[in-house]
Amino acid sequence: MMKFKVFIILGLIITGSAVFAQSGSSYTRIGIGDLEFANSARRLGIGNLGISVADPDFISVINPAGIYRLKRTRIETGLDYNGVFTSNNNGSTYQGEGEFSGFNLAFPISNKYGIGAAIGIVPYSNVSYKLKEDITSGVETGQEYRIFYEGRGGLTKLYVASSYMLPFGLVAGASFDYYFGNLNYFSRTDFFNANILDAEYERTFSPKSLGGSFGLISPDMSELIGEKNISDFRIGIAASFISKLDADTVFVATSSIETDTIAKGTGTMDIPARFSAGVSFVLNSKFLFTLDYMFQQWSKYKLFEKTDPRLRDAMKLSGGFEYRPVREPGLTSWEQIIWRAGLSYEQTQYNVVNTGIDQFSVSGGFSYPLSIENTLDIGIQYSMRGKKEAGLFTENVIKLSVGLSLGDIWFLRQDK
Question: Domain range holding 327?
């Protein structure tokens, strides 16, 4: 009965994700849009990364080695809401969007050998914007016009992962990844003069390719520190690679007279590899601390063999904190809540008008126990990025993530 209820809840979450409007950051016009790191409310709460964190109660997507500690079959899914306050020297506006944060299923195969397996589908990037621009200068009287820009879509990753404990407690993990998606860029020109025909243009890319992710997590090295209050001191590294994506493209022009497919063909999209490293430890058996670094060379991104001068190398540095009370008989649900907080600095991949767009974020959240193995996870992040100089704009982004982490004994093999 419990499993039946779980899938009803998951179905409501997945179908409910389709009712939200599509509008977000204007910077997502560039490249493949904003990059997704967290994929869960828990990761969002500790600063998005957590490369060296392996947990029996949560699924690690960013480092496949992190699933080795799972004790039960787990399902994680959720929804994200992004609210974007955009402002420049001419005014400000607010836009919001909701999106499905992914679905992940993981289960232990052998606790003795650290063998775990996971499968899931998560967003890799997100394109979502709506803009308009009035052109009233530099054109003849009567030919003034307004341009509407809209983009939607993104890249999605479908993965199958596994972990294994090597000698001396070193854990390795790997995943086989399949990337696919649609990137849609739409523009419409409305002339103020009714005698001039309006026009619409839409360009669509449909990339798809294979990839792989690899990760390592060190054994517990807390004895090397010599501090009895510190435990579970670990270092983790991870890398993900994507082979050249085949990017089918269609360019369509529409007017009040006809719709015409101007161009149709196939090219390639080159997405650079992502490298990450992190360290974590537990203090007094209750307090988890993390520090992580991520690098991705977006200056090497190519679409149809051409680089984009509006892209630069991306870097992210984040720190996180989690308080988890020790489980004891008699604790109330409120006394079992897991609390989180995080900070991050991100040198985003965007480089507009020779100006790099940096982002500063603060995050937090908690997990409320629904039962011994199941939690309702809440994460919230506030970010600031951009500048108003050189005709640019600033964005203040509030991201709210709501998820479920559910556990049960389904596939566990008993070691003899």
Answer: 2-406
Cα–Cα distance for residue pair 14/99, rounded to 1 Å:
10
Q: Does position 363 have pLDDT exceeding 90, yes or no?
A: yes
Q: What is the DSSP string of 248-298?
A: EEEEEEEESS-EEEEEEEEEEEE---EEEEEEEEEETTTEEEEEEEEEE-G
Does 415 fall in a domain?
Answer: no
Tokens of 389: 């100089």
Q: What is the pLDDT of residues 37-71, one digit of tens each?
A: 878 899 999 998 899 999 888 899 999 999 999 98
Residue 168, sorted as left (phi over 0), alpha (psi -120 to 50) or beta, turns out to be left
CA dist 35 and 16 (Å) reads 23
Q: Stretch 211-232: mean pLDDT, rounded?
A: 92
Amino acid letter, 78:
G
Q: Is residue 412 part of a domain?
A: no
- The encoded tokens of residue 197 equal 């025909």
Write the DSSP assignment of 199-240 as a string of letters.
EEEEEEEEEEEEEEEEEEEPPP-HHHHT-TTEEEEEEEEEEE
| Structural domains of the chain, count | 1
d(CA 42, CA 46): 7
Q: Which two tokens stand for residue 404?
A: 């479920």
Q: Is residue 80 part of a domain?
A: yes
CA pair distance 4, 360, nearest whole angstrom: 42
Residue 292 is assigned to a structural domain of this protein: yes
Q: Which CATH number belongs to the domain containing residue 203 in this structure? A: 2.40.160.60
Query: The pTM is what?
Result: 0.87
**Element holding 323 (H helix, E strand):** strand 314-323
Q: Is residue 335 within 8 Å of residue 323, measured between CB atoms? A: no
Q: Please, what is the end-to-end C-alpha distance for the chain in angstroms?
A: 30
Distance CA 183, CA 412 (A): 40
d(CA 270, CA 290): 31
Backbone angle region of 138, left / alpha / beta, with phi > 0 → left and psi within -120 to 50 → alpha: left
Burial category of 179 from C-beta neighbours within 10 Å (exposed 0-12, middle 13-18, buried 19 and up) = buried
